[in-house]
What we know:
Helix content: over 70%
Distance between the termini: 16 Å
Shape: globular
Oligomer: single chain
Number of strands: 0
Amino acid sequence: xxxxxxxxxxxxxxxxxxxxxxxxxxxxxxxxxxxxxxxxxxxxxxxxxxxxxxxxxxxxxxxxxxxxxxxxxxxxxxxxxxxxxxxxxxxxxxxxxxxxxxxxxxxxxxxxxxxxxxxxxxxxxxxxxxxxxxxxxxxxxxxxxxxxxxxxxxxxxxxx
Length: 160
């Protein structure tokens, strides 16, 4: 097949290359998130984003290191899997011409809703979206960066 007529499957096959894409996307996206959350956000809101604190609230434990590990594993492994096998396939089926970067940004918005509505509000009992304080918007930008970087690595490695 020529490059222009080649159609990608809805979901990539789960092979070693795809596992490498998942891990690379997760690492690149998570490092991008961490740079935003810990080094840039403090200039905007006066302090870093602290997702480990949310993890602690949701699961009811005090161990900050364990909370950091849980957040890192979710970001490096599970969120990229969600992009490859849920978000991107849904976009390809529902609105196929959406560009990769737009799908990535929307994926980031979805992660933000998951974090600040489902996890923070429904599970941890905090106000929805933390009451739309400045931190809420910094979190939105961070999640959009995460989604964009995940989609970018998938685009570079998988061609879509």
